[in-house]
Task: inverse folding
C-alpha cells in the first residue's frame, strides 16, 4: 500500500494482524507506508510466541510528522514487540504537532508484550503521544512507556515546548486504566514533589493481571540500584501499575525490565526471554 504524503509532513503507518494456527503464532496481513516496518519475526521461545522489532524513522520526528501503529492479535496469538532504538521528537518550528498514535487490540486467549525503547522529547518539541489498548475476554497486555524530557547527560534540558500523552486500556468495552498528561515545559509539574521532582525521565508499566509477589521488597531492591530515581508499584483489581522517575533512560529501563522478569513467569507461565536487540 502506498500513499503520497504531503511534502511538509512525514506520514508513516504500520498495521499488522496476528493469528494462531495449530499453536503457532503467524504474522498475517501487514500494511505500511513511510518508514515504519518490522524485521522478520524471531521465535526464541518456540513457535507459539513471536518476537518482533518495529523499526521507527531513524532521524526522529519534526513538526507535522505523524506515526500510526495498529496491531490486532487474534485468539491465542502471542506477540512480544519492541523497538531497536529510542524514538526522538525534535524542536518544532511549525504549527503542527508531532504525533505517535498506537492502537493495540488483543483477542481472547492472546497476549501482547509491548516493550518499546524510550521516547526522547527534545526542547521545543510539541509532541502528542497516544496509546489505546482494547482487550477481549481474558486477553493479556503487558506494556510500558518511558519518556525522557531532553537529554540530561548532555545538558540538554526540556525548557520549551509541550507534551500531551495518553494511555487508555479497556476490556470488553469497560475502562480498566487511563493515564493522561499535558505538560508544558518549565512548569511546576517538572519540579514539584507531587510531580517529577526534578527528574527528567518518567514511565508507566501496566500489567493486566494480578501477579502474586512481594512488590514492597522488590521496590526496595530496585530503588537501591537506581537511586536517586525510584519505582512505585500499586495493585488495583486485575491491573498492576508501576511508575518510575529517574535521571536517565537506562535506569528506567532497568527498573521495568527487572519487574518484567519478575512477573512474566506468573502472568504468562514463561521465564523472561529478553529480546536479543536489547543486548546491542
Result:
Amino acid at each position: 500500500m502506498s500513499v503520497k504524503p504531503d511534502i511538509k509532513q512525514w506520514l508513516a503507518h504500520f498495521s499488522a494482524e496476528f493469528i494462531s494456527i495449530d499453536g503457532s503464532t503467524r504474522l498475517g496481513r501487514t500494511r505500511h507506508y513511510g518508514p515504519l516496518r518490522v524485521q522478520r519475526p524471531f521465535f526464541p521461545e518456540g513457535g507459539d510466541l513471536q518476537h518482533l522489532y518495529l523499526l521507527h524513522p531513524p532521524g526522529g520526528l519534526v513538526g507535522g510528522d505523524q506515526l500510526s501503529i495498529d496491531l490486532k492479535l487474534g485468539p491465542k496469538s502471542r506477540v512480544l514487540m519492541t523497538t531497536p532504538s529510542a524514538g526522538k521528537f525534535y524542536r518544532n518550528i511549525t504549527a503542527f504537532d508531532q504525533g505517535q498514535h498506537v492502537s493495540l487490540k488483543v483477542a481472547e486467549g492472546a497476549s501482547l508484550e509491548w516493550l518499546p525503547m524510550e521516547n526522547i522529547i527534545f526542547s521545543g518539541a510539541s509532541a502528542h503521544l497516544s496509546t489505546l489498548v482494547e482487550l477481549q475476554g481474558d486477553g493479556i497486555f503487558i506494556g510500558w512507556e518511558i519518556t525522557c524530557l531532553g537529554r540530561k547527560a548532555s545538558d540538554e534540558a526540556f525548557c520549551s515546548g509541550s507534551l500531551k500523552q495518553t494511555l487508555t486500556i479497556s476490556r470488553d468495552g469497560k475502562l480498566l486504566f487511563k493515564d493522561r498528561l499535558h505538560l508544558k515545559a518549565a512548569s511546576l509539574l517538572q519540579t514539584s514533589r507531587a510531580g517529577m521532582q526534578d527528574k527528567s525521565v518518567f514511565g508507566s508499566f501496566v500489567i493486566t493481571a494480578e501477579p502474586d509477589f512481594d512488590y514492597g521488597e522488590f521496590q526496595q531492591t530496585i530503588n537501591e540500584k537506581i537511586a536517586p530515581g525510584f519505582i512505585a508499584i500499586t495493585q488495583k483489581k486485575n491491573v498492576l501499575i508501576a511508575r518510575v522517575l529517574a535521571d536517565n533512560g537506562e535506569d528506567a529501563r532497568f527498573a521495568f525490565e527487572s519487574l518484567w522478569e519478575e512477573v512474566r513467569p506468573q502472568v504468562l507461565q514463561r521465564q523472561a526471554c529478553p529480546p536479543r536487540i536489547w543486548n546491542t
